[in-house]
């Protein structure tokens, strides 16, 4: 298995390309002015449910990616990671438009990372749409 560090990296950010799911959902990854990774996406018609708001799964996915990016930023050498648990609070509906997901590490151990994530409307400090807490299993890079 190749490590995340060896997979495709976004040249302008040094952050990983998270795979075909990134293309399917349509998000991109950037860095905030302070260097933290952020996931951003334009919520469009294909993301909406029958009530013309983003399906909850879209918000969950963006929050999950934000948490994973926070882990990757602290452990770029890892072989991989998996979401173990995620608790989410939906505070506002997600309307069409630009959204930003930001994650931070709450606690980082040898094999588990505990994160807090937030989804904002319009800007990284915009209206708070959803929050989440995540636990990620970290898989160590194989020694060569």
TrEMBL record:
Residues 53-121 form the Thioesterase domain. InterPro entries: ACOT13, HotDog_dom_sf, PAAI_dom, Thioestr_dom. The keyword Coiled coil does not apply. SUPFAM superfamilies: Thioesterase/thiol ester dehydrase-isomerase. This is PaaI family thioesterase. Belongs to the thioesterase PaaI family. It comes from the Bacteria. It comes from Aquibaculum arenosum. It holds the Pfam family 4HBT. Keywords: Hydrolase.
